[in-house]
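RECORD TYPE: inverse folding
INPUT: structure tokens
STRUCTURE:
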């Protein structure tokens, strides 16, 4: 799912209130419009930028300015005064402070305010770190007039059970984005900045998407399902949501209920779906087990993914696939090559929570931009004893290694009843599954019908099988992009030498 993180921001969203305001009469509307135009002509909004060396107290006072200050959440229940959203505060600093031009610099300033004990988490917990995204913080005030206001008790667990907080991180761009906190060496060449595919870059990182697996991936909270109060009994549920949102990845929100009726749940989820569209996002339902792989005896016997083999032997018949790189990177480069194909067909990555830390990098799932397909391609475990035949382009796994359930599933597709067939070159490919839960009601683009789904699967199969030499052409185009980048690097080096 891709729910909107901004769904929980403070905005009215009430069309009834808007209509009631507009029904006061045409004369009142004309007077208000005239007064508004007059005030716009007489008052010119001026923004005085804070100095780069401004103290924490000066920044806090500028935030509390009634005109040019930060926007606060005006909710009287369970919130202290001057409560704000962390992403709004960082964006406010970018436009109101000198020298703050990036989100990373804005986060550093807010973290310094947190260390100075000028701001704190809305739960009142002083140890909660400042994170960019939809996190609720408030400005600590020493005014005597605000002592009667709501004061948080520091119970973070109770707060997280009522409010959904999500950290927003920058896109990974399929491993091509260089972290802003990494070491930047001036006047150096980076092939990632010149259109070279990731699998042909000099420095690759096949585990770039595992950067969010170190911390807590999911949190839980209580969900009030019957918000309009239509039911005559108490109905509630739970939400299991991801703690990190990235713009180029799918975001998962799991709704669990036992004491709620189906009609109430549908109205709630479909209301979220409409709000997500207004935020420029797409929210779609997915099955609990998207690929229905035989991991356990409880797997659905009537569903199963379609195996689409990848014809890697058609790329280089006589020479090595990655002849210019170290042998230690062959497996990772082949994995990134498969991911480049997935990207080419409009899929985005889905972060999968590993069962154990041992198989954290074992499988990678993707969902199509239309939400109608799911894809997975397994990745060999480094713990296994794996050898790579460079000339044949095949993997051969040691005979005493027991295959995982998805490997056994692929084996049954490509080798029939022959259980001793461990020719992994034939098993190189993808698992394709339909998202049968996306009906016409959930589709934002009505042109995506069943015929479109069949055509895309057919096109994906033909590409992976090298029909009309398409896969091989993509391979050569990628190498040409690397060659052009190398020539550009040589020209720059010659110009620098001539200047010296």
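DESIGNED SEQUENCE:
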């Amino acid at each position: 799912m891709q729910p909107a993180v901004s769904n929980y921001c403070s905005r009215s969203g009430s069309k009834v209130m808007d209509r009631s305001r507009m029904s006061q009469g045409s004369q009142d509307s004309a007077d208000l419009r005239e007064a508004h135009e007059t005030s716009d002509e007489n008052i010119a909004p001026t923004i005085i930028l804070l100095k780069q060396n401004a103290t924490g107290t000066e920044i806090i006072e500028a935030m509390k300015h009634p005109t040019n200050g930060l926007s606060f959440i005006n909710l009287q229940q369970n919130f202290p005064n001057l409560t704000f959203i962390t992403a709004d505060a960082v964006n406010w600093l970018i436009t109101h402070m000198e020298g703050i031009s990036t989100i990373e610099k804005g986060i550093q300033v807010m973290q310094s305010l947190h260390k100075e004990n000028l701001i704190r988490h809305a739960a009142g917990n002083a140890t909660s770190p400042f994170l960019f995204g939809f996190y609720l913080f408030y400005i600590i005030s020493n005014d005597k007039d605000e002592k009667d206001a709501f004061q948080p008790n520091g119970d973070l667990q109770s707060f997280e059970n009522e409010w959904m907080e999500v950290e927003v991180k920058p896109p990974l761009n399929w491993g091509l984005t260089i972290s802003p906190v990494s070491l930047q060496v001036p006047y150096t060449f980076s092939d990632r900045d010149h259109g070279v595919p990731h699998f042909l870059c000099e420095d690759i990182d096949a585990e770039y998407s595992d950067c969010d697996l170190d911390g807590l991936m999911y949190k839980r909270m209580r969900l009030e399902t019957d918000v309009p109060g239509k039911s005559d009994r108490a109905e509630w549920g739970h939400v299991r949501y991801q703690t990190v949102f990235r713009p180029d990845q799918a975001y998962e929100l799991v709704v669990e209920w036992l004491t709620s009726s189906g009609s109430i749940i549908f109205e709630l989820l479909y209301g979220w779906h409409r709000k997500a569209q207004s935020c420029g996002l797409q929210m779609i339902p997915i099955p609990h087990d998207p690929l229905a792989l035989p991991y356990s005896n409880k797997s659905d016997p009537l569903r199963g993914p379609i195996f689409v083999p990848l014809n890697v032997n058609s790329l280089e018949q006589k020479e090595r696939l990655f002849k210019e790189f170290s042998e230690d990177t062959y497996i990772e480069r082949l994995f990134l090559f498969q991911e480049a194909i997935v990207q080419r067909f409009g899929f985005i990555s889905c972060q999968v929570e590993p069962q154990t830390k041992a198989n954290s990098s074992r499988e990678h799932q993707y969902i199509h931009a239309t939400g109608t397909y799911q894809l997975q391609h397994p990745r060999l475990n480094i713990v296994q004893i794996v050898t790579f035949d460079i000339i044949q382009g095949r993997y051969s796994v040691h005979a005493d290694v027991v295959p995982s359930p998805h490997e056994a599933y692929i084996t049954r597709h490509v080798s029939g009843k022959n259980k001793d067939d461990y020719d992994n070159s034939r098993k190189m490919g993808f698992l394709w599954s339909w998202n049968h839960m996306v009906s016409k009601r959930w589709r934002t683009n009505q042109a995506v019908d069943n015929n479109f789904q069949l055509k895309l699967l057919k096109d994906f199969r033909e590409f992976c099988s090298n029909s009309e030499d398409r896969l091989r052409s993509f391979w050569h185009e990628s190498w040409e992009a690397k060659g052009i980048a190398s020539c550009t690097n040589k020209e720059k080096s010659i110009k620098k030498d001539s200047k010296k």
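NOTES: The CA atoms of residues 54 and 97 lie 9 Å apart.
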